[in-house]
């Protein structure tokens, strides 16, 4: 039985946070991710940083500046890094094999962009029967043509809270709620 927890940090990369790509509450989201990452490390749970690898596309080229994680994110050498190639982190990446190897059964999901990569990963994790905890105040996005970023985040938090999961469960909780339940 898979019984270990992992924190996923999706696409918190410099190329997604530019003056032309304003994200909602960036500083707060980074601070909360850092708090959870610190706690996960203290509890010996893995912290996994997912980075979009757009090699060959001209954007998010591996090891280029826009591919790098934000400077304010606290990434340790013991953390795991996984490259991703589509919105869904599981698509053609090493994530599933790494999670299986570490006996992970519950994913705590944070990152950027709520309505693309975070959403796709949550849906994919549910169809793979993971228990999912979305960090309600730990993901961000930008304004969209018909919704503000804050509305997008609020909408997806509502969607996820009301989903019918497969064998796993899905919960949407704040950073403080999650910190209170972790052993």
Write up this protein:
The chain has helices at 26-42, 95-101, 114-127, 149-161, 175-181, and strands at residues 4-10, 47-52, 80-84, 104-112, 131-140, 170-173. By secondary structure, it is of the alpha/beta class. The protein has one domain (4-181): Isochorismatase-like (Rossmann fold, 3-Layer(aba) Sandwich). The protein has a six-stranded parallel β-sheet with strand order 3-2-1-4-5-6, with helices on both faces.
Layout of secondary structure:
Layout: E1 4-10, H1 26-42, E2 47-52, E3 80-84, H2 95-101, E4 104-112, H3 114-127, E5 131-140, H4 149-161, E6 170-173, H5 175-181
End-to-end Cα distance, whole Å, is 19 Å
Helix count equals 5
CATH architecture classification name: 3-Layer(aba) Sandwich
Count all strands and give the number: 6
CATH class: Alpha Beta
Structural class: alpha/beta
* Main β-sheet, spatial strand arrangement: 3-2-1-4-5-6
InterPro entries: Isochorismatase-like_dom, Isochorismatase-like_hydrls, Isochorismatase-like_sf
Pfam family, one: Isochorismatase
Domain Isochorismatase-like: 6-144
GO molecular function: hydrolase activity
Features:
single chain, 183 residues, alpha/beta, Rossmann fold, six-stranded parallel sheet, 32% helix, globular, Isochorismatase-like_sf, hydrolase, Isochorismatase-like_hydrls
């Amino acid at each position: 039985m898979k019984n270990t927890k992992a924190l996923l940090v999706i696409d918190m990369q410099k190329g997604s946070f530019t003056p032309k790509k304003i994200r909602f509450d960036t500083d707060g989201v980074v601070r909360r991710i850092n708090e959870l990452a610190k706690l996960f490390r203290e509890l010996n749970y893995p912290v996994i940083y997912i980075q979009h690898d757009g090699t060959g596309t001209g954007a998010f080229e591996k090891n280029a500046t826009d591919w790098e994680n934000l400077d304010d994110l606290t990434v340790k050498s013991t953390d795991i890094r996984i490259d991703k190639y589509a919105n869904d982190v599981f698509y053609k990446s090493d994530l599933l094999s790494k999670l299986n190897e570490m006996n992970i059964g519950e994913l705590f999901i944070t990152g950027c962009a709520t309505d693309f990569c975070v959403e796709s990963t949550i849906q994919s994790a549910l169809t793979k029967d993971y228990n999912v905890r979305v960090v309600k105040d730990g993901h961000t996005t930008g304004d969209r043509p018909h919704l503000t970023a804050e509305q997008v985040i609020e909408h997806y938090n509502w969607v996820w809270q009301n989903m019918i999961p497969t064998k796993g469960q899905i919960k949407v909780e704040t950073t403080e709620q999650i910190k209170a339940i972790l052993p």
